[in-house]
Automatic annotation (TrEMBL):
Residues 2-250 form the ABC transporter domain. This is Lipopolysaccharide export system ATP-binding protein LptB. One of its GO terms (molecular function) is ATP binding. Keywords: ATP-binding, Hydrolase, Nucleotide-binding, Transport. It comes from Pontivivens insulae. Gene3D superfamilies: P-loop containing nucleotide triphosphate hydrolases (3.40.50.300). Its EC number is 3.6.3.-. Pfam families: ABC_tran, BCA_ABC_TP_C. The keyword Hydrolase applies. It comes from the Bacteria. GO terms for cellular component: plasma membrane. CDD domains: ABC_Mj1267_LivG_branched.
Length: 259
């Protein structure tokens, strides 16, 4: 579904991404791991249109999307979340969800005045969709809560819910587990798996929690120093000497061998 070929992203003399090539298969939950500064988030930002790469190419379903804006990619079904949730803090959870679909009839003054019946029908449909998302994520108890009052984990669930308000083909999740307690992390993980299995969502996720990665992801791609270091099943990646040296720590293999 996504193919990245020989991608470079330089900031002055800093080579944040330095010749990375990856493929994300349709229907997969692909993990992207690596030490801080490996280039993971920069790669996400290039694919999602926030940066134009220094060189290289990105394809979505065989169509080159290199350099397209986030708005253009949104309409092609490519969405991303952020490590720090970007909610509208003064709106309710339901209203946050209802803000997502683009080109709503009620956004135009002419339509609001002269096509009020259509505006009401569309608003009712979007509200119904938002309530469906709220039920799917099992958060009806906060549906009318201001988003700014949510916990960190609840805000991450809301971010995931926002991707469900449109027909997403692929969702890039940036550290969805950061700052989230274990109970809510399990809830988020369950929602990701259900979206993948029941609704055909494709995911690529940056994450540092290896238990979370092990539970959800196949395959796993490891980056280091702006390049792809290894990729494959999580068990193989965790046993790779280069990965242990670069990311997981030299003590992990010995620790696992003693268990």
């Amino acid at each position: 579904m996504i193919r990245v070929e020989d991608l470079h992203m330089h900031f002055g003399g800093i080579k944040a991404v330095n010749g990375a090539s990856i493929e994300i298969a349709e229907g997969s939950i692909t993990g992207l791991i690596g030490p801080n500064g490996a280039g993971k988030t920069t790669l996400f930002n290039v694919v999602a249109g926030h940066y134009t790469p220094t060189s290289g190419h990105v394809w979505l379903d065989g169509e080159e999307i290199t350099g397209l804006s986030p708005h253009e990619l949104f309409h092609k079904g490519l969405l991303r979340t952020f490590q720090i949730a970007h909610e509208f803090s003064t709106l309710t959870v339901r209203d946050n969800l209802m803000m997502v679909p683009g080109d709503q009839a009620g956004e135009g003054l002419w339509s609001a005045w002269f096509r009020s019946a259509e505006v009401k029908r569309q608003e009712a449909a979007i509200r119904e969709k938002a309530d469906e998302v709220i039920d799917f994520l099992e958060i009806p108890h906060v549906a009318d809560e201001l988003a700014g009052n949510l916990s960190g984990g609840q805000k991450k669930l809301l971010e995931l819910g926002r991707t469900m308000m449109v027909d997403a083909k692929i969702v890039f999740l940036d550290e969805v587990g950061a700052g989230v307690n274990r109970t809510l992390l399990n809830t988020i993980g369950d929602a990701i798996v259900r979206l993948n299995r029941e609704r055909g969502y494709t995911f690529c996720m940056i994450e540092h929690d290896m238990d979370f990665i092990s539970r959800l992801c196949d395959p796993v791609i490891v980056m280091a120093e702006g390049q792809v270091l290894a990729q494959g099943k999580v068990e193989d990646v965790k046993a790779d000497e280069r990965v242990i040296e670069a990311y997981l720590g030299t003590g992990l293999k010995n620790k696992e061998a003693s268990v």
